[in-house]
Amino acid sequence: MSKKHMQTSFDVIVIGAGPAGYSSAIRCAQLGLKTACIDNWCDKKGLVSLGGTYLNAGCVASIALLESAKIYHSLNHNLKEHGIQAEAISVDIALMMQRKNNIIDALSQQIADSFVDHKITYMKAEARLLNDRQVEITPLDQSGVSMLEAKHIILASGSSPIDLSCAPIDNEFIINSTMALNLGAIPKRLAIIGAGVIGLELASIWNRFGAETILLEAQETFLSMADQQIALEAYRIYTEQGLELRLGARVISAKKGNKKVTVEYQDSDGTHTLRVDKLIVASGRKPNTENLAAAEANLLLDENGYVHVDENCRTNLPGVYAIGDLTLLGPMIAHKGIEEGLFVAEQIAGIRNPINYDLLPSVVFTDPEIAWVGQTEQGLRAMGESIKIGTFPLNATARAHAMSQTEGIVKIIAHADTDAILGVHIIGMQASEMIAEAVLAMEFSASSEDLARTIHAHPTLAKALHGAALTLKTS
Asked: Is the pLDDT of residue 420 over 90?
């Protein structure tokens, strides 16, 4: 579309084309709203790619590399028991990264095709909110500033890695999570600041490729947001895999020299020094709200840069919404942003379908995976709830043995009196897939007996969920 004939007025403008943004834009268009989506993501070659961090430098990129890492590890460690012989196994990092990039390109193109199919106006540009009706557009080629207007504006600009002053990124030896998914070689010794979801996922990849991997976590508790029985099982499994988890380790400084990084950190035993080939900073993410709105727009942010919204994702500006990683309504996970994108689009069209934030599943894409929904045992006990617990080990399922993936457990927490399912927590292969049944059961207010009376195919990994429910079955 030439600049002369460029459309400048829309029903909805979406700023950002990550999961929250592209989902919202597509749903708006499906509901008959004239929609524009503006995004500024560029890859390291300067090429525009839809999908945001989630697709280009986050979850999709991570799980693509993890699949390669699992295959490599299996070839080196698990083939003999199958009677299969393989020799001279090696890794071509460039080809592996190309496979990952090809997956990203294909999925990004699917989003672009969907924009075309739904007649969404897509602009490769920087966008800045001027007021509740206007957005300033600066094309990435700096061809000139223009103005767009809309009845509704949806902010979905995502988040970015938090930088640490004690470990300044140099893009070579000290890197962030995005760069850690684009390494040109397997580091011999690797340290990661942060043993949360991102740190663990990166550690799972490079540890599987043979890198000596050390995680430095400032908190004393491992995976404090997860059920602690599952977290302790995860700690045991990851440690046996060779991950070195150092808790209560607060990094003081990180300096490069002689093609190494010297990391200094403190824990309860004093000050320690660590020398590694690469240091990954994975200490969390921050909302991308810098320069998102002009000062005169008076968009309300909190002290950490999150956009203030109500339970309907509405900002303090009429007709302006914020979704995904920009808000504190839920955790920074892709499916939360997607649901908010759909919710806001339907709300604009006059459809009301509230989001149940209490039943957002969480997943850690490690090997094995961790997944959970609902409340944890420690949280329920702290509230004084009367509960009962059923667990079932994956090594009691035939499918897990056939797949040589017997590590892990399924845990169901139910109310002691009503038998309502309050939380389900899983560590094991395909935990991310198994948790969907638990989410559906809880969404429809199922009891543990409902799960126990549901026929599950045998042999499957899902039989472990059935087994956990059977341990809770009332007479």
From this structure: yes
> Measuring CA to CA, which residue among 41, 40, 15, 42 is closest to residue 28?
15
**Angle, helices 228-240/197-208, rounded to nearest 10 degrees:** 20
Asked if residue 188 lies in contact with residue 277, where contact means CB atoms within 8 angstroms, the answer is: yes
The amino acid at 91: V
Please give the structure tokens belonging to residue 86. Answer: 């393989």
pTM of the model: 0.94
Upstream peptide bond of 318 is cis (omega within 30 degrees of 0) = no
C-alpha 287/C-alpha 283 separation (Å) is 14
Which residue among 152, 401, 458, 466 is the active-site one?
458
Q: Which of 345, 314, 342 is nearest to 327 (CA)?
A: 314
pLDDT tens per residue across span 433-472 = 999 999 999 999 999 999 999 999 999 999 999 999 999 8
The CATH 3.50.50.60 portion of the chain extends over 9-160+286-357, 174-283
132 is in an annotated binding site: no
Residue 195 annotated as part of some ligand binding site: yes
DSSP labels, 1-63: --STT---EEEEEEE--SHHHHHHHHHHHHTT--EEEEE--B-TTS-B-TTHHHHHTSHHHHH
Is 217 annotated for ligand binding?
Answer: yes
Was 449 annotated as part of a binding site?
no
Residue 325 annotated as binding site: yes
CATH class of 9-160+286-357: alpha beta
Residues of the chain with CATH 3.30.390.30: 368-470
201 is in an annotated binding site: yes
Of 6, 237, 321, the residue nearest 137 (C-alpha): 6
Give yes or no: 308 in active site: no
Superfamily in which the 368-470 domain is placed by CATH = FAD/NAD-linked reductase, C-terminal dimerisation domain (3.30.390.30)
pLDDT tens-digit readout, 84-125: 988 889 999 999 999 999 999 999 999 999 999 999 999 999
Class of the CATH domain delimited by 174-283 = alpha beta
